[in-house]
């Protein structure tokens, strides 16, 4: 039996991102992926939101993805677009990048970090006890892990084996989705009920085309065929555009469910294993990647013995509300897309409000993930929010905040005068950086905030504490997030 600190079940975007985070934290991790490779058919999951690009920037790899996609300065909501160009971020845009292109780039980075991915292998069962989890694989072998993380999708075997309830709402709508060639140039664009036709190569245009069409009813049990797609195109457009040569044809629904708990003992869930919902707003992949960034450093610290096991409970308390909000806003968008007269009236009223600056900023902040605020208690307005990527002046030369997070270690950013601060027992876990800064402290939605004298930044880029270095809350924050010390901090 092979033993590892962590076994990740599922090598999609969430599992790969989690593997990278654990590797950066020094944890022994292996990924089990049922596919033979990272190659994907189809054009599913078409974009990265601003906060996802930021977390990749925090690890120094954002440009690998940005250079492969197309930048659009907006996010989509209920069939309209919301401008992001005035948001205080280096990445005020949606990056159009299909999952089939995103995954291989991410897998390449994970490989550079030395993580092993066991392709072509499925998990058939698992059993946990007080000290670990046994994972039975389809090749007849068993892995032993201190912790297992299910990143294995909406039908997650890991979630079911752990006995975690997956409550929610049954689907109300069903869509055909396909990648096809067309003999006649199609009517490209969105349809009022959702879906539409667009080129897979969004930069160059032309075929092949992605097709998304609302179909009648839900609960279909037969696989959609090319003939069935032709009928749906004729019903929607009056022609089938000479559709032919499908790469693939499938369907999706607005099934909406969330795991009651993201942790059950030594088993944790992330990504679609923890939450499924309609694709409106393109939030699924992004939410999963951000789950991984929240969980990775915490789990790495626990397996290293730096932090107690109860640190993992903060993963659920922080990310479950984020997932619940995604479920709510996707259900709202489904309702706004209905074509009956009352729904149209509601949609028109909502879109009128979104034309006003404040509602537009709030909604765009929500969809992009830039407004995420973990409830870490009372304190500075920065507390629990993403740290702005300030331009910094240090003794070593100019840098910026995100560059300090490339190794996924926490940072105490000392911006006051005079410098000279002793981290004491946390010095081997937390990097202290003395710096001056340029620019305003501005947060999406909130606007400008008062600059603190110092900021404690978690590896995920969220602020764990902000204030003056003499604040007695600082040692408590250091202990809470990065393990026990002796509480003797000196300046």
Task: Explain how this protein is built.
This is FAD-dependent monooxygenase. It comes from Angustibacter luteus. Its cofactor is FAD. The protein has eleven helices and 30 strands. The chain is α+β, with helices and mostly antiparallel strands and 491 residues long. The strands form eight sheets. Strands 1, 2, 8, 9, 10, 11, 19 and 20 form an eight-stranded mixed β-sheet that branches. It has a five-stranded antiparallel β-sheet with strand order 14-15-16-13-17, covered by helices on one side. A hairpin with a 2-residue loop joins strand 5 and strand 6. The C terminus is likely disordered.
Q: What's the topology here?
A:
Layout (H helix, E strand, L loop, with lengths): L1 E8 L3 H12 L4 E5 L13 E2 L1 H9 L3 H5 L3 E3 L1 E4 L2 E4 L10 E3 L2 H14 L3 E4 L3 E6 L4 E5 L4 E9 L6 H6 L3 E4 L4 E9 L6 E2 L5 E4 L9 E7 L10 H12 L5 E11 L2 E4 L3 E2 L2 E3 L5 E2 L7 H21 L8 H24 L4 H14 L2 H12 L22 E4 L2 E4 L10 E4 L16 E4 L1 E3 L3 E2 L3 E2 L5 E4 L5 E5 L5 H10 L9
Parallel strand pairs: 1-2, 1-11, 2-8, 11-20, 24-25
Antiparallel strand pairs: 3-7, 4-7, 5-6, 9-10, 10-11, 12-18, 13-16, 13-17, 14-15, 15-16, 18-21, 19-20, 22-23, 22-26, 24-29, 27-28, 29-30
Helix pairs in contact: 1-4, 1-7, 7-8
């Amino acid at each position: 039996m092979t033993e590892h600190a962590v076994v990740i079940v599922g090598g999609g975007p969430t599992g790969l991102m989690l593997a990278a985070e654990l590797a950066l934290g020094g944890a022994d991790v292996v990924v089990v992926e049922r596919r033979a490779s990272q190659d994907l058919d189809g054009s599913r999951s078409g974009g990265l939101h601003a906060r996802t690009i930021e977390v990749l920037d925090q690890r120094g790899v954002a440009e690998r993805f940005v250079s492969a996609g197309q930048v659009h300065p907006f996010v989509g909501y209920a069939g309209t677009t919301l401008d992001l160009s005035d948001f205080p971020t280096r990445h005020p845009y949606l990056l159009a990048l299909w999952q089939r292109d995103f995954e291989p780039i991410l897998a390449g980075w994970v490989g550079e970090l030395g993580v092993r991915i066991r392709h072509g292998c499925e998990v058939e069962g698992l059993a946990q006890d007080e000290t670990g989890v046994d994972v039975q694989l389809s090749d007849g072998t068993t892995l032993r892990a201190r912790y297992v993380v299910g990143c294995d999708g909406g039908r997650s075997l890991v979630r079911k084996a752990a006995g975690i309830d997956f409550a929610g709402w049954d689907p109300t709508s069903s869509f055909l989705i396909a990648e096809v060639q067309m003999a006649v140039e199609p009517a490209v664009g969105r349809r009022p009920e959702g879906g539409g036709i667009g080129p897979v190569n969004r930069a160059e245009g032309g075929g092949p085309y992605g097709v998304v069409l609302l179909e009648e009813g839900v609960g279909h049990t037969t696989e959609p065929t090319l003939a069935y797609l032709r009928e749906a195109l004729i019903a929607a457009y009056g022609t089938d555009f000479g559709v032919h040569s499908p790469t693939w044809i499938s369907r999706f629904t607005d099934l909406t469910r969330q795991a009651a708990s993201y942790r059950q003992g030594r088993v944790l869930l992330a990504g679609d294993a923890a939450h499924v919902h309609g694709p409106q707003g393109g939030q699924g992949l992004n939410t999963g990647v951000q789950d991984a960034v929240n969980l990775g450093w915490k789990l790495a610290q626990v397996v290293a013995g730096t932090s107690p096991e109860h640190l993992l409970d903060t993963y659920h308390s922080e990310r479950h509300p984020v997932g619940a909000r995604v479920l709510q806003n996707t259900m709202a968008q489904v309702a706004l897309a209905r074509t009956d007269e009352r729904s149209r009236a509601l949609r028109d009223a909502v879109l009128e409000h979104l034309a006003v600056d404040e509602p537009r900023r709030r909604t765009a902040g929500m969809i992009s993930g830039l407004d995420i605020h973990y409830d870490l208690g009372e304190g500075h307005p920065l507390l629990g929010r993403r740290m702005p990527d300030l331009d910094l002046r240090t003794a070593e030369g100019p840098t910026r905040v995100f560059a300090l997070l490339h190794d996924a270690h926490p940072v105490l950013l000392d911006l006051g005068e005079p410098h000279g601060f002793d981290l004491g027992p946390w010095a081997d876990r937390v990097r202290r950086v003395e710096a001056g800064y340029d620019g305003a402290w501005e947060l999406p939605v909130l606007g400008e905030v008062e600059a603190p004298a110092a900021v404690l930044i978690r590896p995920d880029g969220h602020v764990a504490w902000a204030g003056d270095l003499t604040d007695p809350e600082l040692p408590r924050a250091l202990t809470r997030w990065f393990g026990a010390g002796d509480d003797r901090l000196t300046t």
